[in-house]
User: What shape does this take?
Amino acid sequence: MDSTNLAIEKHAFELYTHAIFTKVRKEIYKGKLFCYILNTEDCDDVRVYYVNQLDKRSSATNTFTVKLELRNQSVSCSCNNFIRIGYLCRHIFCVYRVNNIEKIPAQFVVKRWTRDVLPKSIFSIERRYGVDTRPQAAARSQILEIVTECVDALRSDVGGLSTFAEQIKELKSKLLNEGPVDDEAKNDNYVAVEELLGVSLDGDVTLNNPDGIRRMRQTSTIV
Assistant: This one.
C-alpha cells in the first residue's frame, strides 16, 4: 500500500510495531481516499461528523458518526474500532485530516501495540543464554548495545541518523589508522576455534596415509 505522506502516518510509524503500523497505515490510507464528510453538526464543544465510507468502486457503503471534542482532540466513532481492537479507524483519521491533526493523541495509543512496550534491558546481549563472559566479549557487547540504542532512538530522524553515521565513520577511520590491532584481539579467533575443537592450534601438523586401504583394481568382463 502506498504512503499517504501525511504527518499522522509518520507519527504512527514512530509509535507502533511494524505489524500494527501496517494495519494503522491502512486505516489512514482508507480514511484519505475512501471516506468523506457528508455533514457536520456543532453541539457545545463537540463537533459531530457524518462520514461516508466508500468501497473500491467508489460507492457509498455506510455512514458513521464521529464525535470530536475540539478542546482536547478526544474522539469517538460509531464503528467502535478503537474499543474493539485498540487503534483508530479510517473514519476518525478522515476527521483528523480535515482538522489538520498531525499526531495521534496519547489517550488513543494503547501501550501493548507500541515499539517500546518492553524495556530495553530485556534485549541486552548479556541476558542471553550461553553468552561469552570474557572481558573483551563483554566490551564488544556493550558497544553493540550502545550503537543499537542510538539507532533506535534516531529511527525516524534522517538527519540525526546521517550525523551519527558520519561520527561512526570518523571513529572507525581513527581506529584503523592508528596502527595494528592488539595481538590479544587478533588471537581471539584462534582461541575460539581451540575451545570449539578442544585442541591446540600450535605446533606442526603431520598427515599420513591411512593404513589398511587397498587400491581397487578395475576389471572388465567381455561377453
